[in-house]
Write a structure and sequence with these properties.
mainly beta; five-stranded antiparallel β-sheet; 11 helices
């Protein structure tokens, strides 16, 4: 435990002996910037963030009814999201995250079966909206349909009206397309596990895309028809399956909506999961392979993409796919643009053109079931030049994009996840080189202008100040401006205000420590946000807490929050810290009252130490402490003059431990600038500091605090 925290616990218990009543009213939860989201959201509170290669994303989550099986689909509807569940329930998620289920359902059987349908793979596969008039749409749904002794794969349609913001499904359901042939129930009912796979019906595909105003593309899966053939024939290469030219299974078909005439566009697909057209007119299709061999295909009319005769995958159970002449090859048929081995269970894809994420423009975004990830795929000249895996920990079933640029995901755990760019606040980020602020002018929010309208005078005054850059970055960002201490939390909700702030200040002059705290060596100014004299405000995106600092020179601040708990017998205790941060000032500290403390002009070395302190806080304080307590990395108290890799109580990497080196200011600067060049194999990552910044950090660490 950190020394400061031990003192905190003692002091807070002492302070808690006085009765403190919590303010009965708290501001409502606010979770994002106004330009990036609408008001009164009901999403999961405190949305998590996810850093990708180029952007930091914020995840807003809506929970649907639980699904009995994977499947279902989503489609944008203005600022709303239309959802159809795997078993055909229709729901609308409003701009505020509220869910409304409609009374209509997708027809999935002629008459109710004797028992609930629980077959693996029997599902709604996709939905698509075609606008027919302002606020009027045709809703297309691809889905299974129980028809007597077999299961049909259909595209059905109905009318949907969105007038005055009210979503109404009206009219009879029409059958636009029925795949040939009907699939025997036996293929659905004979599921006996993954190894060997003897069941069928699971590989429905079903993604749809408008091909001009009057034609609909549908990618139909093979429903495990050919794995079933392999099982029946015991994998005899001498009796390969015959692909019926009239069958729709495993093919991309084009439906003329006026006549319902069907034309086969391309063939050779196992389980097509995604369909999207880019700005150049290229048609992209994602496809599940068997064990290994998921594919990204560039589809051209009349071509055969290989299945069931060519695949980069193998048969489940690590067995050879008998109809592939050379295992691991894809010979004699149109090659995929890219193949994932092992399989990631690729799902739907879109072409990104989000105004929030301009650096992703033109990239494919594809979901994945098995890896629980979103893949960003960069294409150049019809080939994959790179892809980024963004791990989300959810089986991503479908993906779409709203007009405002938010990416929306449907998961098999019955969640809707909105991905948006994490709020960026103009002039409030101290790292101008950060990739996450690269194009911030497009989306940033001016917080200081927003707080100018609040009634709290301390907060309103911030709009007239240049509060600089954060001195601490933790759960809250902490700014120090003259004699003000400013806490900023983005996003922020009511419980952040309920927690108690602890604040310990170590003065430059030990005589400024109060008598009762002399043993600790610092003064304590613990407080709640609603205490008298404390400024506080919530704005649409975050919250501020502001308090005055004492009028003496100080060299170290340690602050954070704890949670007040009370046992049944009335004993008060504290949990935490919820978060903590600390800042050590250079020799020219702030906070001194001009008429009490005279500060002589800073020498060049003092100036470097002060800027070094800010650089240390930005680049180093997240992993290293200036006390004698280790953190993620070793503590840096007395690091100059210490032998490399020999911080007592810390297991250093072999790369440092084997160096025959005593740290000097110069050698430490070289290491900070480029750790892997200085000590190949070190666990310390390169932070991106310049040589001059590394020199200032090392000079700060050499300064006698």
């Amino acid at each position: 435990m950190r020394k400061g925290l031990k003192a905190t616990s003692v002091l807070l218990v002492f302070i808690a002996s006085a009765t403190i009543s919590l303010h009965p009213l708290y501001p409502r939860s606010i979770e994002a910037a106004p330009s990036l989201v609408l008001k009164n959201e009901v999403y999961v509170p405190d949305p998590p963030t996810k850093r990708t290669h180029l952007y930091e994303l914020q995840l807003l989550i809506v929970r649907l009814e639980e699904f009995g099986d994977g499947g279902g689909a989503i489609e944008p509807l203005g600022d709303k999201v239309l959802v159809v569940t795997p078993r055909g329930r229709i729901a609308v998620i409003g701009a505020d995250g509220e869910i409304s289920y409609l009374p209509q359902e997708v027809p999935m059987f002629a008459s109710p079966p004797d028992r609930p349908i629980t077959w693996v793979g029997f599902r709604v596969a996709d939905i698509l909206l075609k606008e027919t008039a302002p606020e009027a749409f045709t809703l297309f749904v691809s889905h299974h349909y129980l028809a007597g002794d077999c299961v049909e794969f259909r595209v059905s349609s109905t009318e949907l009206n969105a007038e005055d913001g009210e979503i109404v499904v009206s009219g009879d359901w029409k059958t636009e397309f029925t795949a040939n042939p009907c699939v025997d129930q036996e293929l659905f009912e004979s599921w006996e596990g993954e190894i060997p796979k003897t069941g069928g019906g699971i590989q429905a595909g079903g993604k749809m895309l408008m091909d001009g105003p009057e034609h609909l593309l549908v990618a139909v899966g093979d429903h495990a028809w050919y794995e079933w053939h392999e099982y029946q024939e015991e994998g005899d290469p001498a009796t390969p399956p015959v692909v019926d030219p009239d069958s729709h299974l495993g093919k991309l078909v084009r439906i003329e909506l006026a006549t319902r005439e069907v034309r086969i566009v391309a063939t050779g697909f196992r389980n097509p999961q995604g369909l999207a057209r880019d700005n150049e007119g290229n048609l992209w299709l994602t496809e599940h392979g068997p064990q290994g061999g998921d594919e990204l295909n560039l589809v051209k009319p009349g071509l055969d993409y290989g299945w069931p005769y060519a695949t980069y995958g193998i048969l489940y159970g690590n067995r050879a796919w008998p109809y592939n002449e050379n295992q691991g090859q894809h010979e004699g048929f149109e090659e995929p643009i890219f193949s994932w081995i092992p399989s990631i269970a690729i799902s739907n894809l879109i072409v990104s053109d989000s105004p929030q994420l301009p650096l992703w423009r033109g990239d494919l975004l594809a979901g994945s079931l098995a890896s629980g990830s979103l893949f960003r795929i960069r294409l150049r000249q019809d080939r994959v030049t790179s892809f980024e895996r963004i791990v989300l920990g959810e089986r991503i079933r479908d993906i779409t994009q709203l007009d405002d640029g938010r990416i929306v995901l449907l998961t098999d755990s019955a969640k809707i996840i909105y991905l948006r760019r994490a709020p960026i606040y103009c002039h409030m980020d101290n790292d101008s080189k950060s990739i996450f602020t690269y194009d911030a002018d497009e989306v940033c929010v001016d917080v200081l202008s927003a707080v100018g309208e609040t009634e709290d005078p301390k907060i309103r005054a911030l709009s007239e100040l240049d509060i600089g850059t954060p001195r601490m970055r933790s759960y809250f960002q902490v700014y120090i401006h003259e004699n003000l201490l400013v806490y900023l939390r983005i996003p922020c909700s009511a419980h952040e205000f309920r927690n108690r702030f602890f604040l310990h200040i170590t003065p430059v002059d030990a005589e400024d420590v109060s008598e009762e705290l002399r043993d600790f060596g610092f003064n304590v100014y613990d407080f709640y946000s609603y205490d008298e004299g404390i400024g506080r405000a919530m704005f649409e995106g975050g919250c501020f807490v502001v308090r005055d600092l004492p009028e003496y020179a100080y060299k170290h601040i340690y602050t954070g929050q704890v949670i007040r708990e009370e046992s049944p017998d009335g004993e008060v205790f504290w949990k935490g810290p919820v978060w903590e941060g600390s800042y050590t000032f250079g020799p020219e500290s702030v906070g001194a009252a001009p008429d009490e403390v005279s500060v002589s002009p800073a020498l060049p070395q003092e100036e470097a130490s002060d800027s070094g302190a800010a650089l240390f806080t930005t680049y180093c304080a997240g992993c290293h402490s200036l006390t004698d307590e280790h953190s993620v990395g070793p503590h840096l108290e007395g690091v100059i003059g210490r032998r490399a890799g020999e911080a007592e109580g810390f297991n250093a990497s072999a790369a440092l431990a084997t160096l025959d080196l005593v740290w000097t200011q110069e050698s430490l600067a070289d290491y900070v600038e480029d750790p892997t060049r200085f000590a190949p194999g070190t666990s310390m990552a390169k932070t991106g500091v310049t040589a001059e910044e590394a020199r200032k950090i090392a000079e700060f660490l050499a300064w006698d605090r």
